[in-house]
Every structure is written in structure tokens, then in C-alpha cells.
Amino acid sequence: MRVLVINCGSSSVKFRLFQVEETRAGQDPAPKELGRGAVSGIGGQAVLELASQGGTPSRSTRMTADHQDAMAWVLEHIERDAVQAAGHRVVHGGERFHAPTIIDDEVIAEIERLGELAPLHNPASLAGIKATRRHFGPWMPMVAVFDTAFHHGLPAEAAAYAIPQDIASRHRIRRYGFHGIAHASLAAGYAAFTDKPLAQARLITVHLGNGCSAAAVHGGRSIETSMGFTPLEGLVMGTRSGDLDPAIVAYLARRERVGPDEVERWLNERSGLLGLSGLSPDMRELLQAEERGNARAAFAIRSFCYRVRKYIGAYLAVLGGADALVFGGGIGENAPAIRARICEGMAWCGLELDQARNEAVQGLAAGTAAFIGRADSRIPCYVVGVDEETEIARETVRVLFGNRGRPIANSEQF
Question: Which one, of 182, 190, 286, lies nearest residue 226 by Cα?
């Protein structure tokens, strides 16, 4: 089966085409990549990069107003008869979606309703879903793979907010957690690289990009994570504030004479590294500005690293120690200086990086891993190239074939 995977982020679209062979019941599908691409810089002069097996990579630019424009551009390069199914990353699945789900009109409506909880992401995922359906037709099966699913089994004490529980229940307010596909990929990458079973592992996985989150993973299951009811909670991010006193929302609404929706927009779109630095949400630009002596850029970087280090310390307590710390994501995989600053001063718990190993790791291929800790460190440290798309392809095939070696009912076309 040829599966197109669409991964719509807050400011980008990544896509990969896989050939996934049928397997016996219970066996893990093994996707083989046929091609890939990405659109970055959505909302302005965007860049489309394409690469196919045996082909020459290409790069082009054009103005894109939104994800709908970006998806139209992507689909211009994909032939209709080259794809038999599609898998989509969807950030917020709420309480309803605990596992990958075949997309129909009802599922689309529910994803749209959940958009108020993930305003930077679910609308982008919907744009990808609707554009794909228009391009290939409603007959082609599509599967939604949810970022929240990996964290669905959080212990009750980790999932609950200390608010009146009748109100929480009525409005389905709980800590859902996000980046689940990425955290699952980091844990799987660690297990494959070390040849150690996840069933016995206590891991702290740290996914750092424009969006950032940490997770405590015990026995392959998430038992704590930094994001909560929405992707706004937790670490300092590119444009998102992360943790803050909730009273700030009402206070700013009164003082600035705006509604709470506007304050929430500031927290999602004008805060984080951008808000602290007044310069950029891009860590690469901030590191360059710091080298030029920009004090606000330096402060933003310090704040970012401090928050991650604080969460690592908390998760050591949650797990009762850790068998490894695993970095991933655009910053986690490509910024040795940030990894070093996060781990600085953590020798007390046995976490120490090897400077040469750390600096040598930049730009890992998806699904690969590297050890960056000192040989005698009690808590080993790794970098894993996050591979969300391969995991989405696997999940798409699992759902459509129902682990029975043939497609399920509404996938009979192939």
C-alpha cells in the first residue's frame, strides 16, 4: 500500500510517501520511503523542498497565506494514482480519540470542535485533511493519528487539575499532553539504538522545536508530561509562554482592556522566545544574536534552558531516577550548545555530557540515534532523530488492515 503522510505543524507542512507492505497479523508494518518534502515559512515567502528516491532534490519559493495554500502547493506535485491511503497527524484528540481513527465527516467535525483547545494546530491539520480529500476524492481512506493518544493513560493524579471536579467533568478539563507521536518515536529510537526493551526503561524524553515538551516514560508508557489541557502549558517555546500564573490572563484582560481570547492569542503567538527576546522565535537566530552581544537574546536562551532543566529534575523525582535522557526535535537534534546548557550543573544526579560527542551531533537522520554522554555518566544521554511520519504510516496501515492481513470494511477499494 502506498501511504501519503501529512504532518501539518503550526508554521510548516511535512509530507512523506511510503510503500508499506502487508504483514502477517500482529507483525509491525515496515514502511519504505518513496519520497518526501516540506513547506516552511507559511504565512509569507514560503520554501518548498522535494526529494524522491533516485531523483534530484528541488527547492522553490512562493507566497503562501496559510496552510490551505501550502497544501495546494504540495498536492500539485503528487499524482492522484500514486497514493492509496493517507495518514494525518492531528494534535488534539480530546477525550474521544484515544487511538488512530479512520476519518469521516463526523471525525472531521469533532477535530474542528477541538480546535479551540489547539488553535495553532488542529485548524492546520484540518486544512491538510480537507485539501487531501478534495485532491484524491472522498473514496480514499484516511486515518487521523493523534498526538494526545500516547498520554491518554496518564495516572489520575497527573492528569487532573485541582479545580472543582464537577466543573472539570462537565467541560472535560484534564491534562491531555501533546507531541505524543514524537515522544513515542524518541522512546522507540532509544530502544532500537541500545537494544534495551522499553518494558524496563525509565526515560525522560525532551522534544524541543518551535513547540517544546518533556515526558516521563516508564515501561513505554507516558506517566507525566509538560503540556496539559492545551499545547500552551509547560516549557518555554518559540511563540508560546509555557507555564504561567493563570491569574495573569484576567489581569491583562482588565489592564489592557481586551477580551480573554486576545490575551490567549498573545500567549500563543507573541510569547515564548519571541516575547522574551523581542527578536525572533528561532533558536538559530537567537544564538547568532547572542554572539553579537544581544542581551535579550541571551536572556531568552537562559530562560529556555532553565525551564527544561527544571522539568528534567521534576521527572527524575516522578520516575525515581532515570535510565536515560533523550533529546529530539529541531532544537534538540541540531543545537549542541542548547543541549549542553540544559545539562550544565546536573552532575549531582549523574547526568554529564561528553563535549566532543555532543558537538558532533547535528542533524541526525530520522529514526537514527547517537550517544552524547560521558562514558561513566550514571544517566546516559542520547539524541534521536524524531520520525513521526514513519510512525503515522505504520498506524495508518494498522488501522486500515485491522491487523488481520486485509483492509477493513471502508477500505475495500484496495
Answer: 182
Enter the C-alpha cell of residue 55. Answer: 531523483
Give the single-character DSSP code of 81.
G
Q: How far apart are CA 132 and CA 142, in angstroms?
A: 9
The model's pLDDT over 176-220, given as tens digits with 9 standing for 90+, comes to: 999 999 999 999 999 999 999 999 899 999 999 999 999 999 999
Q: Which fold has domain 2-175?
A: Nucleotidyltransferase; domain 5 (3.30.420)
- 147 carries an active-site annotation: yes
Tell me the per-residue pLDDT of 244-263, one tens digit each, with 9 for 90 and over: 999 999 999 999 999 999 99
308/48 Cα distance (integer angstroms): 32
DSSP secondary structure of 29-68:
P-EEEEEEEEEE-TTSEEEEEEEETTSPPEEEEEE--SHH
The DSSP line for 150-207 is GGTT--HHHH--SS-HHHHHHTT-S-----HHHHHHHHHHHHHHHT--GGG-EEEEEE
Catalytic hit among 147, 282, 323, 376 = 147
Whether the CB-CB separation of 20 and 33 falls below 8 Å is answered with: no
**Could you tell me the fold of the domain covering 197-388?**
Nucleotidyltransferase; domain 5 (3.30.420)
- What H or E segment, with its residue span, contains residue 266? helix 260-269
